[in-house]
Amino acid sequence: MAKLRARRMAPDDRRAQILDAAVALILKNGNAGCPLEQVAAAAGISKPLIYKYFARREDLLKALLEREFADLRGRGLDDVPREIAPERAIRGTVERALTYYFERGPIIRLLSAEPEVAELARQGNRASRRSTSDYFVAKFMDAYKVPLDVAQIAVTLVVNAPVGAIPPLKRRGIGAARTIAVWSDFIVGGWKMLAERYGAPVKVKKPAKTRRP
To answer: How far is the C-alpha of 107 from the C-alpha of 116, rounded, in Å?
Structure first.
């Protein structure tokens, strides 16, 4: 049997190739329980070579999680201008986040089920959602003049809902574009209703009285 020989690649490219092969394998198997040897075979490289990049399976899982969270952050608030109008911020962030969840969402869920990295996954999820939540709570309090608790309730529910919703939507044959449009409209309309019900009334300045000569 011919000995497996991988073509030469730059270290960063090789590392990315291994991670990509691991992602494809995890999605195919429906779990993240694959050993390093199996990942090496999927990547078309030798066992000694994969151990040069990842000494333990746990190291590979951590690297996968870190890359996924970095990707998710990049689709979230990193590219959203701080002075953008609330509706545009909602629609842009929803599009980026839901596109990620439809394309790669199962990866974080499957990795989170592995005991070696479960706590890291929880920390990453909390950090990612906290950053988004803090941004939108402040933005909507300013834009819609709602109290802090109203903003926190609405934002917390909205930020945490998509993770569990995407799998059943996909099973029903509902795609990303339709979901993004409906969810964006739902959020925008909801904030307008909250502003009407809980928002502080806008004070209209009376024109200054002019003295008659």
So the answer is: 15
